[in-house]
Amino acid sequence: MRKIFILIFSFLMISSYSQERRVITTAVPFLMIASDARAAGMGEQGVATSVDNFSQHWNPAKYVFSEREGGVGFSYTPYLSKLVNDVFLANISYYNKISDRSAWSASLKYFNLGDIDILQNPLDIPIVENPNEFTLDAAYSLKLSENFSMAVAGRFLLSDVKIQSLGDETEAASSVAVDISGYYQSDIVQTGGSEGIWRAGFNISNLGPKMKYAEQGNESFIPTNLRLGGGYEFIFDSSNSLSATIEINKLLVPTPSEEVYNSSGDLIAYRQPDISFLSGLFKSFNDAPDGFSEELKEFTYSIGLEYAFNDSFFLRTGYFSEHELKGSRKFITAGAGFITNDLKIDLSYLISTSDVISPLENTLRVGLAYAFD
User: Fold this and answer.
1) What is the DSSP letter of 291?
2) How many whole angstroms separate alpha carbon 352 and alpha carbon 322?
3) 170 falls in which pLDDT band (50, 70, 90)?
4) What span, in angstroms and rounded, lies between the C-alpha atoms of 160 and 266?
5) 210-214 own/partner pairs: CB under 8 Å, 24+ apart
6) Whose CB among 119, 195, 198, 240 lies 3.0–4.6 Å from 186's, allowing a Cys bridge?
């Protein structure tokens, strides 16, 4: 029952927070969590970084620029680790180059909300529930020129968070979605007397219909999202390089703008309009009640640095920022990685700098990746 109280308390805190601040919420929000330790160590970004085994989450168009034929990766992220020990996000990714100009890839993400003991009274034998969510996707990427590629991904989403023993009004919700992404990587160029590589990328992810958890309930938007990023890798010599990347991000779902009042006439919350996901996508750029200034507050920003020594040892850091009125996620990240033979191990750590503490605060994330030819 302790976990139920934690979840209820968290929900009440989020609700009271969003009543004043119009925080955008969606179904399956775990899709917005960085699913690998490398990206997590660089401010939770990856749309315009160099290719790695976990590019499926950020930008699958990167895979055609891989120097290896293929690879597989596994990552593990504990969630709410200060409170519970069985809530986690796991991810496995795979890619394979078909030719020098094309590749296919796939990934599975599984978000486990842990075991929940249901008791009607303290003397009962508990009924154990295990709500969970997962997505399964596949992508095809193609080089359109020597320096630019695009990819299309298809995704199936399933959210089974119902507590069956408390009633049968709810059911597992599912949806499908599409991603469209692009990636640019320059040849090695001369800049200010040294060599380097320019990179840029975009990804419009989770384009798909809303999810419905109850037959008579409202539908929920899935996290349709826009990522844009760019960066530069400074190549100091054959053994040392430093990459700097910036990324901006915006949810392409409507701002909660419809006022909800209680029986006393007090404003208690804002809710999203009941419109289709396509209408919500286009309205998301100009539907904030306070106009353009509020729309700008709905963007998040991150910067990341990665130092590489001999392409075998890596140090990373980054910063992520979200406006106080739209969620107030602000944190510093740090990470490291090393390669032994064809196995790469990545670690990352997050430190909140906001009054709203991240559920990933003081969490060590781990990633393992294996490349082959």
Assistant:
1) T
2) 12
3) low
4) 34
5) 210/27, 210/175, 210/276, 210/277, 211/27, 211/28, 211/157, 211/159, 211/173, 211/174, 211/175, 212/173, 213/27, 213/159, 213/161, 213/162, 213/170, 213/171, 213/173, 214/169, 214/170, 214/171
6) 198
At residue 362, the pLDDT reads 83
Q: 300, 306, 307, 347: which is closest to 328 by C-alpha? A: 300
Phi, then psi, of 89 in degrees rounded to 5: -115, 125
CATH of the domain at 45: 2.40.160.40
Q: Fill in the amino acid letter for 130.
A: N
The mean of the pLDDT values for the chain is: 88
Q: What is the mean pLDDT of residues 242-255?
A: 96
Residues 108-120 pLDDT 10s: 999 998 877 666 6
The SS3 call for residue 325 is helix
pLDDT of 223: 95
DSSP secondary structure, 55-74, as one string: HHHH-GGGGGG-SSSEEEEE
SS3 (DSSP) at 2: helix
pLDDT score of 218: 73
Which two tokens mark 128?
């154990």
Name residue 93's amino acid.
S
How far is residue 200's CA from residue 263's CA, in Å, rounded to a whole number?
51
Burial letters 312-342, b for 16+ CB under 10 A, else e: eebebbbbbbbbebbbbbbbebbbbbebeee
Task: Count CA atoms within 13 Å of residue 35 on its CB side.
Answer: 28
Across 277-302, b (16+ Cβ under 10 Å) vs e yields: beebbebbeebbeeeeebbebbbbeb
Give the residue from 290, 359, 362 showing the smallest Cα distance to 13.
359
Per residue in 147-167, pLDDT (tens digit) is: 999 999 999 999 988 765 555
Range of the domain at 185: 2-372
Rounded Cα distance, 144 and 165, in Å? 53
Number of domains in the chain: 1
| Calpha distance 108→138 (Å, rounded) | 9
